[in-house]
């Protein structure tokens, strides 16, 4: 697959992210924001591009200046935007984010009538799924039609072409009718993907069957707490067929679970946390980089940990993803892989 035109096509959510400039201020006391680019798959397209991969993004924006803002930034980064669709009558989505270290990062989504959830099967047919080594999809892309069918169709196209499929579970409770519908949908998708990236709470959400198991603190829908047995969740996910479940856990170690019971741990890189938002997408970028380099699971996870550690010391997501040499130097300065 090394002769394919793209290393990765990332499909799904995109947004303008407005980050509070007043670090530590409660949300009601925020006075100003900085505008960045966000959305799990879009962040990963930038993160992998900065690491030297050939990255394209399949998303949709409105015919509005916010869409222009996103596309302009992606073009400057060298992400291929040929497959970004414009959706008349729909808006480019937005997120407003507060930063209250060390553990409170409230955010509010503006996704009513948003463009990226309007991706269609025809949009997928125009994208180079079969000419990419990896297709990255996210849970939110499966939350509503027509994006749900388009995403599953993209996965079908990838599997037929031998393109590896990565699923970031990306659990955003307020984007679903209820948490049970998220679980049902993820359990369907798990049979079709090669590698799953998740937090422990996202893994439990993927197998839950009770709405009451989910709670959200601080209006922080990026960090929902999910009750349940994480060991059972891991086993259920792996029985569905993925070759690996990659469990990211912020400052704690990353664990890669493989079918058959093998468990591989990768130590974190301790840093002082400034803002955790975007760290998971930085992790995914570094991990996919290592995966496509042919590295073993532990080394790829260490690269993911390094990228995540760098981003938590910074203000935003896509705009602050590390570059390849920067990440490699970060690892080398801290004892290597």
Description:
This protein has helices at 40-50, 65-77, 121-125, 147-161, 179-189, 200-207, 230-239, 279-292, 297-311, 324-333; strands at 6-11, 15-20, 33-38, 55-58, 60-61, 85-86, 94-97, 107-110, 132-138, 164-168, 195-198, 214-215, 225-226, 244-247, 254-257, 263-266. It has a single domain (6-333), classed as Ribokinase (UDP-N-acetylmuramoyl-L-alanine:D-glutamate ligase, 3-Layer(aba) Sandwich). With 337 residues, the chain is α/β, with parallel strands linked by helices. The strands form four sheets. An eight-stranded mixed sheet has the order 4-1-9-10-11-14-15-16, with helices on both faces. A four-stranded mixed sheet has the order 3-2-7-8. It is built from ten helices and 16 strands. Helices cover 33% and strands 20% of the residues.
């Amino acid at each position: 697959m090394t002769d394919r035109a793209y290393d990765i096509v990332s499909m799904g959510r995109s947004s303008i992210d407005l980050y509070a400039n007043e670090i530590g201020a409660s949300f009601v006391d925020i006075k100003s924001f900085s505008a960045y680019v966000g959305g799990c798959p879009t962040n990963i397209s930038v993160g992998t591009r900065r690491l030297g991969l050939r990255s394209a993004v399949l998303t949709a924006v409105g015919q509005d200046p916010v869409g222009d803002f996103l596309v302009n930034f992606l073009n400057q980064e060298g992400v291929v935007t040929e497959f970004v669709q414009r959706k008349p009558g729909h808006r480019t989505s937005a997120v407003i984010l507060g930063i209250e270290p060390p553990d409170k990062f409230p955010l509010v989504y503006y996704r009513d009538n948003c463009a990226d959830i309007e991706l269609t099967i025809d949009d997928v047919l125009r994208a180079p799924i079969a000419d990419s080594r990896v297709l990255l999809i996210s849970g939110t892309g499966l939350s509503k039609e027509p994006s749900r069918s388009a995403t599953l169709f993209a996965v079908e196209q990838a599997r037929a072409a031998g393109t590896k499929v990565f699923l970031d579970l990306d659990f955003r409770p307020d984007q679903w009718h209820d948490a049970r519908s998220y679980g049902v949908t993820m359990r369907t998708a798990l049979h079709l993907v090669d590698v799953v990236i998740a937090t422990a709470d996202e893994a439990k959400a993927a197998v839950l069957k009770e709405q009451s198991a989910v709670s959200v603190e601080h209006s922080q829908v990026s960090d929902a707490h999910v009750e349940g047995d994480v060991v059972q969740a891991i086993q259920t996910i792996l029985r569905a067929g993925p070759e690996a479940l990659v469990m990211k856990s912020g400052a704690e170690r990353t664990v890669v679970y493989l079918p058959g019971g093998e468990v591989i741990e990768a130590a974190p890189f301790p840093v002082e946390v400034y803002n955790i938002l975007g760290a998971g997408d930085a992790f995914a970028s570094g991990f996919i980089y290592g995966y496509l380099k042919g590295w073993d699971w532990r080394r790829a996870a260490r690269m993911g940990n390094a990228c995540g550690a760098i981003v938590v010391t910074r203000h935003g997501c896509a705009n602050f993803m590390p570059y390849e040499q920067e990440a490699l130097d970060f690892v080398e300065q801290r004892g290597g892989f």
